[in-house]
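Quick one:
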Amino acid sequence: MKMIYQQLLAFFLVIAVTILLLGISFGRMSKSFVYNDEWRSLEKYSDSLVQQSLTVNTKSSQQVTFSLSTLKTAQALLENQSVHFTVFNQKNQVIYPNNGLSPKVTKNDWRHLTKDQIVRKVNNRNFKLSNGKTRPAMIEILKPYYYNKKLVAVVSAGVFVSDVNSNVDRINRDLLKGLGVSLIISMIISFFIASRLNRRISRLRAAATQVSNGNYDIRVKSGGNDEIGELITDFNHMTESLEKANQEIQRQEERRQEFLADAAHEMRTPLTTISGILEGIKYDVIPQEQRGKSIDLMSNETQRLIRLVNENLDYEKIRSNSIRLEKRHFNATKVLSSIVEQLGSKASESKDRFEIQAPDDLPIYADYDRFVQIVFNITNNAIQFTDSGTIVKGSLKM
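Output:
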């Protein structure tokens, strides 16, 4: 599996777990919200019931009674809304209704009621009453009512737990649908993002393959300012540098080939001369009086051929950056004198003469072979372009 899809799977799992935890949390919150809302509604029903049915005797302000007809009417109305109530007096005796299905108020609940505290309860089990009937599980409240700071009545109002849970289940189903849609949308968005990243990486990979095949002109479109975009920018800089380096290598190669072609042409002439002289000596074609001169010519051409080979080797050393200078102390005047002796005959042919203007001991610190090579080439060029002249060699001027 590709790394981008592994990241997509991990990202999707994180989203799924997050949505699952949110679903559980919202499910509990929705249940708590529905229960609290139901308790508040029951309190309002209880308050409305007491306000409509409670009467105070005008002759005795201490006597408080409930209108049974009003309670009966209220019972009919509330049962249509699945709300059941029971009215207790201050002695924990049932006032209404006397149908044997009324809940019992425990001592602990009564203790809270006498402190003017509302009791909220959830009875998740069915209870068997003394008359043999079964009271379904209910969510209910017990609310006390006082008159002149005296407890006059307690109202128990409740609804079936099954009815409340059905509302909770409906909310949870809607919540699950919403979470499911969110999960699908997040998966689609994640897949779209992963596909886009994968396409960019694929383009970069294809470009890298072309570079490995020698195509340095390739450039990749960035398409973003993220880390992949920065990587693509660095890749384009790399290919640009490689292209410039490749062009430089090609120029160097052209120069090398041109140098080798020139060297081959230059080498052909001395080799031809040497070969002709050797053939003449072998078959006794050259007269005896000309052999000395021919041997000198062959020697000169041999030295010239050696120089051409050395120049070629020097070029390869310079190109590969492996040339080294062996510096040491020596007398430059001796070098000048030796070069004059070597090129004396060639200077005589051009009717040139040498003049060395240097002390007998001219110390110098340099690479001996390179120094000789440079002075030799300069002197040779001077002979080639001078006729019947004077070639001055010295410490200040050559």
